[in-house]
C-alpha cells in the first residue's frame, strides 16, 4: 500500500490504484512526505513530489521541507515533476527555460523562465545525493504515477540483479604486521604539509631486516641505507622525522 497525502492530485492516485492500493490522509501535517510506503525489510520509503517551477521558485524552501521529511522515513526520494528545461540567458544572467506539453500532448511549448542557472540546480541536486536524498525527474503526472508504482514494486523485492552481472565483490584480506604499519605512519614535514614517505614495500624491507621499529630508529642513516630499496635519502628523511637528525 502507498500512503498519499490528502493534497496530492487525485489523477495521480487514480493511476496508482490500478496497480497498488492507496490510503489518503493529511500525512504532510503529521510530518510525512507526499507518498510513503514500507519496503520488504520494513524500512519506510518516502517520496516528496515537487513541480519543477515550485522547486525553482524557492530551492531554500524545498530544502527545508526535505530536511523535515528525512526525519520521518528511512529513505527519501525527491521526485521533480514537469521536469523538461533548457539553459537560457535571463536578465543577462544564466537562467532556466521550462517547457510543458501542449493540450493535445503531441508537442511541448515554452512555459516559464527562472533566474536559476542549470549549473546551480545540478550542483544542488548533487549535494542532495551526498546527503542521502536521491532524485527522480518525471515529465508529467502520468509519468509520476508510473514512477511511484515502479519504485514501490522494486522496494518489495528481496534481491536485485542490477549491476551484479558486471560487478563482483572484491574481498582482500591482509595480515598486516603492526611494525610495518607503525613505520608507514611516520610523517615528515614538507613545507606546510605533512606526508608519509615510506610505502609498504620500503617499510616491510626495513622490518624484515631489523624486526622492530625501535631497532630501526636506533640505527644511523648509513646503516639503514644498506637495506634493499632504501637509499640514503629515505634513511635521512626517516631519522629527521623522528628528530634524530636536526638538519
Write a structural description.
The chain is an alpha/beta fold and 247 residues long. The chain folds into 2 domains: 154 residues, Rossmann fold; 64 residues, DNA polymerase, domain 1 (Orthogonal Bundle), CATH 1.10.150. Helices cover 36% and strands 25% of the residues. It is built from 10 helices and 11 strands. The strands form 3 sheets. The chain has a 6-stranded mixed sheet, with helices on both faces. Strands 6-7-8 form a 3-stranded antiparallel sheet. Strand 10 and strand 11 form a beta hairpin. The protein is elongated, with a radius of gyration of 29 Å.
Q: Radius of gyration from the CA trace?
A: 29 Å
CATH class descriptor name of the largest domain: Alpha Beta
Largest β sheet strand count, sense and barrel closure: 6 strands, mixed
Which stretches of 5+ consecutive residues score pLDDT under 50?
Answer: none
Count of DSSP strands: 11
Mean pLDDT: 87
The largest sheet has its strands arranged as 2-1-3-4-5-9
Distance between the termini: 73 Å
Class derived from helix and strand content: alpha/beta
Number of alpha- plus pi-helical segments: 10
Helix-strand pattern, N to C? EHEEEHHEEEEHEHHEEHHHH
* Overall number of domains: 2
Report the principal-axis shape. elongated
Assess the beta-strand content as a share of residues. 25-35%
What name does CATH use for the topology of the largest domain? Rossmann fold
CATH architecture assignment of the largest domain: 3-Layer(aba) Sandwich
Indicate the percent of residues in helices: 25-40%
Amino acid at each position: 500500500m502507498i500512503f498519499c497525502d490528502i493534497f496530492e492530485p487525485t489523477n495521480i492516485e487514480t493511476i496508482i490504484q490500478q496497480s497498488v492500493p492507496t490510503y489518503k490522509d493529511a500525512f504532510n501535517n503529521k510530518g510525512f512526505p507526499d507518498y510513503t510506503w514500507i519496503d520488504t525489510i520494513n524500512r519506510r520509503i518516502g517520496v516528496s513530489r515537487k513541480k519543477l517551477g515550485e522547486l525553482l521558485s524557492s530551492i531554500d524552501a524545498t530544502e527545508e521541507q526535505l530536511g523535515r521529511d528525512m526525519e520521518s522515513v528511512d529513505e527519501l526520494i525527491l521526485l521533480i515533476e514537469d521536469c523538461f528545461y533548457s539553459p537560457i540567458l535571463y536578465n543577462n544572467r544564466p537562467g532556466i527555460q521550462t517547457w510543458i506539453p501542449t493540450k493535445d500532448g503531441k508537442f511541448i511549448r515554452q512555459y516559464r523562465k527562472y533566474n536559476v542557472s542549470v549549473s546551480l540546480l545540478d550542483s544542488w541536486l548533487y549535494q542532495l545525493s551526498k546527503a542521502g536524498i536521491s532524485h527522480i525527474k518525471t515529465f508529467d503526472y502520468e509519468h509520476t504515477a508510473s514512477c511511484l508504482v515502479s519504485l514501490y514494486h522494486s522496494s518489495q523485492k528481496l534481491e536485485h540483479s542490477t549491476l551484479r552481472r558486471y560487478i563482483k565483490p572484491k574481498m582482500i584480506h591482509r595480515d598486516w604486521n603492526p611494525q610495518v604499519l607503525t613505520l608507514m605512519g611516520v610523517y615528515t614535514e614538507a613545507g606546510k604539509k605533512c606526508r608519509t614517505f615510506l610505502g609498504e614495500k620500503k617499510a616491510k624491507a626495513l622490518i624484515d631486516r631489523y624486526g622492530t621499529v625501535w631497532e630501526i630508529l636506533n640505527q644511523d642513516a648509513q646503516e639503514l641505507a644498506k637495506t634493499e630499496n632504501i637509499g640514503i635519502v629515505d634513511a635521512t628523511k626517516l631519522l629527521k622525522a623522528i628528530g634524530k637528525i636536526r638538519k
